[in-house]
Design brief:
The chain has helices at 55-61, 80-85, 198-208, 214-218, 223-232, 249-253, and strands spanning 3-8, 16-19, 22-25, 40-45, 47-48, 64-75, 87-104, 115-126, 132-138, 149-158, 168-172, 178-180, 189-191, 194-196. It is of the alpha+beta class. The protein has one domain (3-233). The strands form 3 sheets. Strands 1, 4, 6, 7, 8, 9, 10, 11 and 12 form a 9-stranded mixed beta sheet that branches. It has a 3-stranded antiparallel beta sheet with strand order 2-3-5, with no helix packed on it. The longest helix has 11 residues, at 198-208. Residues 1-36 have low confidence and may be disordered. Residues 1-30 form the signal peptide. Keywords: Signal.
Length: 254
Amino acid sequence: MNRTSTISLSALAGAAVLATGVLMMNGGAAANPSAGPRDAIVMGHGLEVVDSQTADHWVSGAQHVVTYTVTGETEQPPQDSEIERREGLTYRTVHARIDKVLWSGDGALKPPAGAWDFRTYGSAFNDNDGAGTAKFALEGRPRVEAGHTYIAALRWRDDPCSDDPAKGTWGSLGSGAILPYDGEVIGQGEYEGRVRTAVQNKALMTGESPDGALAGKLAGQKVESLLDALKRAKPIQGFGADLAETCDPEDAAG
């Protein structure tokens, strides 16, 4: 039996961090958390930082649209404060391979090529109530797991802790800017931590997305449908101009 529980990120104490387009609350983690059920997934609610549901959003805020395959991941150790609380979240470094650049905006920076690593959420646990450890995923987006392929609209984020314009990271535009793409079919593959067909994922995407969202509209189709949507999209003037990120000393140190 699949076991899924839901938590709100606002219920987890700690500092706010930006992770692949979603504002997350950094929770705790134990040094040696006990294992939970193998198929358990804890679902979280994320606060969207940048709109990313439509083709207009993609061409307005992204610099590139790419396909990539996840080749592995490295679980990151929890912080001391998280160990003391014995509950919260851990993070992962995801190791990916850029397969193809599908679209690039005018004047875009050089896209990532070959190997590409990025940081995202990993596991949720609670050793205080015996719940143990389970995979953590956000509602309405892929968790991003090894062996699966995805389409993503990427934007460059300058490092808010550095004055060097060369320092920064590539990340997805937002939760609506990552689409499953196993077998070269949009919507097919891992979504919310579980592997489903495009038809199954389409039902989830349609139910959670506003009218006009790419995820639900393109599920089950080939990449040419996405390219056509991007070609017809209209950039939104001033999109994301008020987005500002602040330096987190803990992120800067690690």
